[in-house]
From TrEMBL:
Record-stated family: Belongs to the metallophosphoesterase superfamily. Purple acid phosphatase family.
UniProt name for this protein: Purple acid phosphatase
Organism: Eruca vesicaria subsp. sativa (Garden rocket)
Subcellular location: Secreted
Domain of life: Eukaryota
Pfam families (UniProt xref): Metallophos
Cofactor binding description: Binds 2 iron ions per subunit.
Protein keywords: Glycoprotein, Hydrolase, Iron, Metal-binding, Secreted, Signal, Zinc
Enzyme Commission number(s) of this protein: 3.1.3.2
Amino-acid positions noted as binding Fe cation 1 in the UniProt annotation, renumbered to this chain: D49, D82, Y85, H251
Quaternary structure (record): Homodimer.
Catalytic activity: a phosphate monoester + H2O = an alcohol + phosphate
Amino acid sequence: MNSRRSLMSVTATTLCFLLYICTTTNGELKRFIEPAKSDGSVSFITIGDWGRRGDFNQSNVAYQMGRVGEKIGLDFVVSTGDNFYDNGLFSEYDPNFKESFSDIYTAPSLQKQWYSVLGNHDYRGDSEAQLSSVLREIDSRWICLRSFIVDAELVEIFFVDTTPFVKEYYTEEDGHTYDWRAVPSRNSYVKSLLRDFQDSLKRSKATWKIVVGHHAMRSIGHHGDTKELVEELLPIMKENGVDLYMNGHDHCLQHISDEDSPIQFLTSGAGSKAWRGDVDPTTNNPKSVKLYYDGQGFMSARFTHTDAEIVFYDVFGKVLHKWVTSKQLLLSSV
């Protein structure tokens, strides 16, 4: 049985690697292909800020993710970053990878590809480690790049490396050390990324366009809005018809509607440690805020050519909030 599982793992890793190579061209973000189901739908779970060796209810959240994944016919998982605490991985052989990922997300429904971006905590360790093909040899589900695209036919998901945008991380005031080996110049890195991101969005013919990053654009949580993303990334999203922005960073669940565009801001950063308790949503809850939940949980998403359904769950699997919208009717309900 173990040899069969090992063979399946290697085969899956090889297939994923081939797709990665075949769908990469010069001047474009790297692209992974996820075919829609036979009924034309795509379903995934979004989780963020999770890797704590099962502590802080991480294992309980993982259990509920498995139940929901089976119910919705999960196609893949999206991770919004801060994948391993407290300071990322120290190398591609760090046991934290297995102890916080492979040993935790064991449900049959979760044995699908995990598409991950880096968060600020991941940059505090060896940021290259999480990008290494060695991890895919250990667990073939794992795919992590700085910025890339998942093409699921009717849905395109644009993953953006948001940590280098945040200017505070380049100063001593932040109090942490970051692995900037791949970011020798903040301005040139961000400029190049924004160019590739904009070009990829303009070429997209997908019905639904989703952007995933670690940091929030709109948040009433502890960290709040990320000024650099609002100024540099959000205008490109508005110009190119993006429907949803998904993020982590704040250890909570949130749904906030943009006030001057159809974009919905969805925070799923509650994969483990939460309950910070420093935000009172009753005193800071504008009309645009549809959900703020300070505890652990995750989010599911299901898309067809005409409809989208977003559902937020707590650590017990209870539905906290559901949002449905239709492209056909151009109407939404909460």
